[in-house]
Specification:
With 246 residues, the protein is of the alpha/beta class. Helices cover 38% and strands 21% of the residues. An 8-stranded mixed beta sheet has the order 1-2-4-3-5-6-7-8, with helices on both faces. Keywords: Hydrolase.
Length: 246
């Protein structure tokens, strides 16, 4: 495997941007790709620094793209940059122009932790025609509650008014309903530690998806909001992804 530390100019963000990319060392093919998203207090280096993702990806023959999105919640911010447009539109196009990555739906996946779990689910539920499977690890999945109960500077900058979130493109519960109505959902994976402060949010999202009969695999076990848990569970995610035979 090769590890690229990539700096480039983003037309969407209008600033220099960064991503780390893990790439199999094999010529003559386009690789299946996992967009692996960081949490609120992390950046594009965190997955490589805190886990053995390079080694795990090598065993699967999959490329991994890890972008930096700051504290944006993978959203076109009310007072800030258009990080949702960046990660959902510009980033995949740039990554495929720089590296031999497949554009086929069956070869594209997303996963993330905490804020990144929200981002991964948002990608899959917003663009079921682009992603075959998405996974959330300890995801911050209920932004409706988070915006109301933790109306911090971050939330104000991102969403401005929490009353605008329910039913919008930022609301995973609403996105899940739309996908369920279209019968086009990607495969969904969700896990959360039972001691995690986001555990109840995860339970609400799980029950919502099961009620909608979406193809969700849910797992829980003792665990907190920490890297030891995520290092274990990203291995489980890679085993779960439908990449065998690609």
């Amino acid at each position: 495997m090769a590890l690229f530390q990539c700096q480039f100019f983003s037309e969407t963000l209008e600033i220099s941007a960064s991503m780390n990319v893990i790439l199999p060392q094999q010529k003559g093919k386009l690789f299946p790709t996992l967009y692996l998203l960081h949490g609120l207090s992390d950046d594009h280096t965190s997955w490589c620094r805190q886990t053995s993702i390079e080694r795990y990806a090598s065993a699967k023959g999959i490329a991994v793209v890890m972008p930096a999105v700051n504290r944006s919640f993978y959203t076109d911010m009310s007072h800030g940059a258009k990080y949702w447009t960046f990660v959902s539109e510009e980033l995949p196009e740039l990554a495929r122009s720089f590296f031999p990555l497949s554009a086929s739906r069956e070869h594209n996946f997303a996963a993330g932790l905490s804020m990144g779990g929200y981002g991964a689910m948002k990608l899959g539920l917003s663009f079921p025609d682009r992603f075959a499977a998405v996974a959330s690890l300890s995801g911050a999945l209920d932004v409706n509650r988070l915006a109301v109960e933790t109306f911090s500077n971050d939330i104000q900058h991102i969403f401005s008014d929490p009353s605008t979130i329910p039913g919008s493109s930022a609301d995973l519960f609403a996105l899940a309903e739309r996908v369920a109505g279209s019968n086009s959902s990607p495969l969904l994976y969700q896990c959360c530690g039972t001691e995690d402060f986001l555990y109840e949010d995860n339970i609400r999202f799980r029950e919502h998806c099961l009620k909608l009969e979406l193809p969700l695999v849910y797992e829980e076990e003792p665990g907190d909001h920490e890297w030891g848990y995520w290092d274990r569970k990203i291995q489980r995610v890679l085993d779960w992804l439908p990449i065998e035979g690609i």
